[in-house]
Design goal:
The protein is an alpha+beta fold. It has a single domain, classed as q2cbj1_9rhob like domain (Jelly Rolls, Sandwich), CATH 2.60.120. The protein has 9 helices and 16 strands. The strands form 4 sheets. Strands 1, 2, 3, 4, 6, 10, 13, 14 and 15 form a 9-stranded mixed sheet that branches. The structure holds fe (ii) ion (FE2). Fe (ii) ion binds next to loops. The site of fe (ii) ion has 4 residues, from loops.
């Protein structure tokens, strides 16, 4: 018998959806006033990160006149985390959700970032957060030892995840072997599989998207976003650290009192330290975002590549309009 109370926000439908298709959206049952205040809080975090030059950030597409910060790493650090976000987490009880869904005793967060991209359309590459055991894809997703939780402070529209039947080893697979799986994940431009092969999220404000990161997925949005992105595992160490306002453990660098050591974070933890692109690159990104002109040659080159022919034979196409104002 596990030592926790079942979280009633998690319905039978949520459990079944997660087990079988690898994702579900749970209503956090937080009142609208607190969500609004938390939204103000994350906007403030973005400003503080610029003012204090809190360098642990990701920039996906740096524009000419806009340092387009896509994400802030280590968001619970005392240098950046406002009181209202602490209150929000004490109400959101994410640990309780993870415990009830996964039947874990000690969910521990070992990755946390705040996605905070400005008003740009964005689409990443299809990927898995780990890929060591593809033959396990068709097991129930609640048997995994890793789970991802996204906490939506704005509506989250666009995130895509492949249906299990189209996955590696599925009855309708568009990833028939490891070579194709690798080719998809390594392809240096966003791809679109057939429309009926994936789910596309349309999650409301104040919800948590819980998903199985072994299943291939693609980050995507159409406008400004604010969502916390957190990865959990079941820690066997009862002495793991905890932030007083959270009901789950965290690894050392995610504790609010962690003293930032940029070299350590970059070299040992793979946490990026942001750096602006060159002027020329930023100019190209901004022009391409509005015109699609810069990508014509690149896409022409990629389409001639051997790996693309392989992918196309399975229904994967270059998503030509991704990361532009025309993205659909
Ligand atoms: Fe991912």
């Amino acid at each position: 018998m596990k030592n926790f109370l079942y979280d009633s926000r998690l319905t039978e439908k949520n459990k079944l959806e997660f087990e079988q298709r690898g994702w579900t959206v749970v209503d956090l049952k937080i009142n609208a006033d607190l969500i609004n205040k938390a939204l103000k809080g994350v906007r403030e975090m973005k400003l503080i990160s610029l003012k204090k030059d809190y360098k642990v950030r990701r920039i996906y597409y740096d524009h000419l006149f806009n340092k387009n910060i896509a994400a802030i790493e280590l968001p619970f650090n005392q240098d950046i985390c406002p009181q209202i976000i602490k209150i929000f987490f004490s109400e959101a009880k994410i640990g309780s959700l993870v415990r009830s869904l996964m039947n874990w005793d000690n969910p521990c967060c070992d990755l946390a970032r705040l996605f905070c991209m400005g008003n740009y359309k964005y689409r990443g590459n299809w990927h898995r957060d780990y890929s060591t055991n593809l033959e396990e894809i068709h097991l129930d997703s609640n048997s995994r030892n890793i789970v991802l939780v996204g906490i939506n402070l704005l509506p989250q529209k666009g995130f895509r995840i492949l249906k299990k039947e189209f996955e590696f080893g599925g009855t309708n697979s568009i990833i028939p072997n490891m070579a194709i799986d690798k080719a998809i994940r390594k392809f240096p431009f966003p791809l679109s599989p057939p429309k009926n092969s994936y789910y596309e999220m349309n999650a409301e404000i104040g919800t948590a998207l819980i998903f199985d990161p072994l299943i291939i997925h693609q980050g995507s949005n159409y406008k400004e976003r604010f969502d916390f992105h957190m990865k959990f595992y079941d820690s066997k160490n009862p002495k793991e650290k905890k932030n007083y306002y959270q009901d789950f453990s965290v690894i050392d660098i995610l504790h609010e009192n962690y003293k930032l050591d940029f070299d350590y974070l970059k070299n040992k933890c793979n946490i990026p330290i942001d750096k602006r692109s060159t002027l020329l690159r930023r100019f190209n990104t901004s022009v391409d975002y509005r015109t699609c002109l810069r990508r014509l040659l690149k896409v022409k080159f990629l389409k001639n590549h051997h790996s693309y022919k392989l992918l196309k034979s399975q229904g994967w196409e270059v998503d030509f309009l991704s990361n532009t104002i025309f993205q659909n």
